[in-house]
Design brief:
Order of helices and strands: HHH
Shape: rod-shaped
Number of helices: 3
Number of strands: 0
């Protein structure tokens, strides 16, 4: 049993590293958003997607390990509390706590980036509205009129 728990712990240790990479990427995305460097943001988002695919694959493996532990212990549902007490389970609990902390930090950075993107989108939308108004005003003063030719009648009395 301890072998399976150690494998699970090792898997989560690897996940910690991947989530830390995502957190660093999120920080970089925020800096590049601020600088308006969209190509760099795009490249960083592509890297993020690749890391997320690795996390998904590892999570599948972690699910298999959890299922195996669940089956060996005869549990309806896997939980850390139901693991046998010992150093392997204590280490796994510590690893899970560390992973939660890293994920919390990542979520904060992602939320900050999302808010920054919202502000940038709102600014671009405002610029587009201003541009559209300017375009309409220019068209009103420069285009041919539907009223036909103008005639002025000057009468002196």
């Amino acid at each position: 049993m301890d072998g399976l728990i150690c494998q699970l712990d090792a898997g989560y240790r690897g996940m910690i590293q991947l989530y830390q990479e995502l957190s660093c990427l999120a920080e970089s995305v925020g800096k590049h958003l601020t600088a308006g460097e969209w190509k760099e943001v795009d490249a960083l988002l592509a890297r993020k997607q690749r890391i997320m695919q690795v996390i998904d694959a590892r999570e599948t493996e972690m699910g298999r390990l959890r299922g195996e532990i669940q089956e060996k212990l005869g549990l309806e549902r896997f939980s850390l509390a139901s693991l046998p007490r010992g150093p392997a389970a204590a280490q796994l609990n510590s690893t899970i706590d560390e992973l939660r902390d890293v994920i919390d930090e990542l979520q904060k950075r992602e939320q900050a980036n999302e808010e920054q993107l919202r502000r940038l989108v709102a600014a671009v939308q405002a610029q587009l509205r201003d541009f559209d108004r300017s375009k309409k005003a220019a068209k009103a003063y420069s285009g041919p009129s539907d009223l036909g030719e103008s005639r002025f009648i000057d009468q002196k009395k």
